[in-house]
Amino acid sequence: MAAAHDRGLEFRSLVGEMHRLGMWSPTVQEPILLVRDPSEVDVPEEIRVLCLMPPKIKRPPGRPPKLRIHSVGEYEVSYIFSSIYFYIIQR
């Protein structure tokens, strides 16, 4: 807005129709209610007696593997090959 004002432009002309008051005002015509206390909410008996627990799953032991896509020209080098290469370079 400061740059538009500095250039003498009407900043309302830079705002799209989707961001104007006429588009958003119908969505907030009703009052926005606060979150009620759970003790004040009437829960039907057939819902209250249900046992809603998360599924029983067990994570595998250890750290999860690192998943990534290799770049073009990047190859997986085995540890034995890299050790031999490092030994040859050091000589």
Characterize the structure shown:
The structure is a single chain. The protein is mainly α. It has a domain at 1-53. Helices cover 29% and strands 0% of the residues. It has four helices and no strands. It is flat. The model has no long low-confidence stretch (mean pLDDT 77).
SSE inventory with pairings:
Blueprint: H1 2-7, H2 21-24, H3 45-48, H4 79-90
Order of helices and strands: HHHH
> Roughly what fraction of the amino acids lie in strands?
under 5%
Kindly state the mean pLDDT as a whole number? 77
- What global shape is seen? flat
Question: What would you say about this model in short?
Answer:
The protein is an all-alpha fold. The chain is built from four helices and no strands.
Spell out the key features of this protein.
mainly alpha; single chain
